[in-house]
Amino acid sequence: MNNGQSVPFDPLASYARLSERVENQGRDIVDLRSNMNTGFRNIEGAVNSLATELRGSSKTQWPVIWSAIGVSFAILLAVGSQALAPIRENVSDVKDALSVVVDKMVTQAEMKWRTDRGAEDRLRTEAAIADIRGGLVPRAEHERVWQNYDQRFADEQRQIDEMKAATASVYNQRDVIRDILERLDRAEHRVPPAP
Question: What is the pTM of this model?
């Protein structure tokens, strides 16, 4: 993680690191081989000098032989453990790196499942779009319907205007005022009822 963000997995960088480790292991093995050859030459020299010394003596020097074998065995164990420790460590690092790579890999079965799932989703989407398109009414048809509504509203408004005009011509304001005046005159001339 870097500043709260996850670092994306880079297979090329992992491969480069693994390749560098393998090359370093190769160099370590070459160095180990040369060190072991030098050690074996030293042991060979010591054994040859011991053998020469033992040939010169008539009695077998068992304690010297056993101590030489013990020293040689100890040297071999030390050199072997020093050689194997980095190899084991690097092998474990390589195993860890490979497990990370394997964990991040997508299997062929998963890819097939994802592809099949994508195809199913695409078919469902296309079917939904076809249903939507099938239910759509073209804009031109909507405009015709809207023009018909506008025409009806205009016809109804014309009829209302005609009715107002006809009503206004039959009983206009002058007639209303005359009726009111006549009522007033009648009310003034009426005799009040007796108490």
Answer: 0.29
